[in-house]
Amino acid sequence: SDPDYADLPLVTISATMVSDRRRALQDALARRSTRGRHIVAKNSGHWIPLDEPETVVAAVREVVLLAR
After folding, report:
1. Per-residue pLDDT tens over the stretch 8-27
2. Are 66 and 6 in contact (CB under 8 A)?
3. What's residue 46's pLDDT?
4. CA torsion, points 47, 53, 54, 59, in degrees to nearest 10?
5. Is the pLDDT assigned to residue 1 strictly greater than 70?
6. For 38, phi and psi rounded to 5 degrees?
7. In a 3-state reduction of DSSP, which class is residue 1?
8. What's the half-sphere exposure (Cβ side, CA atoms, 13 Å) at 23?
9. DSSP characters over 28-67
10. C-alpha dist (Å) from residue 43 to 31, 40, 48, 67
11. Could you give the C-alpha distances from 61 to 11, 26, 54, in angstroms and in order?
12. Helix (H) / strand (E) containing 24
């Protein structure tokens, strides 16, 4: 059984061009938390931190704010 993360802040990020299966897995992971969210990095390949560092920074800031 998949773990339930209750209201733990959670953000998943996926690249632009991923398979439907991969996107569904990321969505399912985000749904494990009531405060989960899946972001698609619109201009990124596999290396999201290099291609879109601002997206990663924004997601980290969001989680930190929600955790406070």
Report:
1. 999 999 998 899 999 999 99
2. no
3. 87
4. 70
5. no
6. -110, 125
7. coil
8. 9
9. HHHHTSTTEEEEE-TT--S-HHHH-HHHHHHHHHHHHHHH
10. 24, 9, 9, 28
11. 10, 20, 10
12. helix 20-31
